[in-house]
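Predict the structure of Segregation and condensation protein A.
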Amino acid sequence: MEQQIGAPTIGEHKVNYHLKTEQFEGPLDLLLTLIEKRKLFIGDFALAKVADEYIAEIRRFEAFPMNDVANFLLVASTLVLIKSKSILPELHLDADEESDIDDLKRRLAMYELFRGLAQHIRTNFGREIIFERSGRPEVIPVFAPEKHCSSANMASAMRDVLAQLPKKIELPKATVKKIVSIEEMMSRLTTRVSQALKTSFSQFSRYEKGRSVRKEERVEIIVSFLAMLELVKQGVVHVTQHEDFGDIAIETHTLDTPKYTEKLL
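Done. Here is the predicted structure for Segregation and condensation protein A.
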C-alpha cells in the first residue's frame, strides 16, 4: 500500500496532511468506496451498514499517520453515532449530533458529485484536439454605444449592476483543537493497566453508558478504543467482553512494581 502526504482532499475541512493509497484518498473517499461497494445510496442506512468496515479499514492501514488522525476519527465517531441510532431507535440526539450527521451526508454527496465529474474529465480529456488556424486576423474589441446612450445612462446602469452584487459576508474563523494522539493514549493505557494489572474500558475512558457525550469526549473515547485495539494486537494487554455493548475488561500479566530507595540518615 503506497502512501503520500500532501494537500487536503476536495470537500473536506482543512487539515495538515493528505493521505493517499492505492485504494482510497482521504476519509470521504474511503467511506464513499465502501458505500458503492455495497451498491447503496448515501443515507443513514448505508452509513450505519459500513461503520464497522470503515473502522476496520483504518485499523488495517499499518503506516497510518498516528499524530494527526482527527479528520478520520471525526468521520468514524459520526458513523458510530449513526449506527447507535439505528440499533437504538429510542436514543435521543442533541442538535449538534444531528448537525454532524447531516453535515457528513452533505459533504459525502458533494464529494460523490466531484469525484464523478473528475472521472468524466479524465475519460474525455485529450480525445478531440482542435488546432487553431494560423494567420487568423486578430479581432480588436471596440466599444460602440448607441447614439441615445449617454454617460448618465451608463453610470446609472453601472450602479444597478453594483447594487446586485452579493454582499461580502465575514465567515466565523475556524479553530482546530488539539486531539490526543493514539501513541499517547496507548502509553496512558499501558501505564494504567501495568500498575493495577486490570481495569475496564469505561474506567479508563471515563465513558458512562446512557450519558450524553460531547463531541470532544466522543473523539477521545474513539482514540482510547483504537489504542486498546492496537495494544491487543501487540499482545501487551488482553480484553474480555461478556455481552454485546457491555463493558470491556482490560488486563495484563506484566506488573510495574514501584521501586523504593532507602534514605540514609
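Residues 1-123 form one domain.
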